[in-house]
Amino acid sequence: MLSTILRRVGISLATIFGASVFAFILLRVVPGDPARAIAGDMATEDAVAALRADMGLDQNLFVQYWRYMRAVFTGDLGFSYSTGGTVNSLLGDRLPATIELGVLAVIFAIGTAVLFASLAVYSNSRWADRLLRTASSLAMGSPPFWIALLALMVFAVQFGVFPGPEGRLSPGLVPPADITGLYSVDALLAGNIPLMFNALWHLVLPAAIISIGPFAFLSRLYRSQLRSTRRETFVMVARSHGLTKFPVFNRHIAPHGLLSILPAGSLLFADLLTGSLLVEKVFGWPGIGSMTADAIIQKDFAVVQAVLLLAAVLYVVVSLLADVILTTVDPRTRVGAR
Length: 338
Description:
This protein is an all-alpha fold. 75% of the residues lie in helices and 1% in strands.
């Protein structure tokens, strides 16, 4: 068990290092001068050269990378020249909004995937199974930003069921006292129930849109696992002991299938926290995604590098935790298990 954890920790550290190198080099081979983009077209060449030197872009790549990683290990993610603030403060301001949105999206994705896949497999109905596969195929092939625009037109503009791109709260409402950074949670802790429901009201539609892609993947994965588990020997033994259909499915098939959801769901959670770029932009959500979109347009290296590094760390940490939990609950996944 310990050797398995140590091996995966080593792989995780190597993955983070590789991601940092990849992000660093990728941003510097992209055409365009970030110093010119930040300084503006009206800036003089001397001003641009001074800014380029201040950003460290006049040094070779090895020196730039060494300075960047040295700063990262001291907790300094750099300075955002496009906003005039530190990247640490930007992430601190934006990350809670993305976490709140991502957590609800994961709940939607896993909940609906487990529900509809279970209904399709339990009913053993051909039309229910076909409907699930069709819905998941459509979900996987639909661009999230297009669905977000369509949802805004229908549910916000046409019917007014959900708010438009207002951000996290309705205009005029004061955010709750900052405890966790999650408006719905902070409003609940402050006892402000109307504000909590307003925050949740703004969360539902973008979270539902973001969850569509993960739902498609997880529903197919869970359906496949349930169908294969039905043919396992222990399920046949349970039926031979006189158990009816529902207890067999509820006690033996469904829990076994959930083991496949754990690692996949954990990776999707990390992906949702950093991959909701266009959806956040459409909904005016002040999170990591919209911040990254603005930083890419303005060629703000420090912000984009920090987000890519954060994505890598999230992937690795969440994946490592999922592996440890899965190894604990399912001994068959351990190295050397027979």
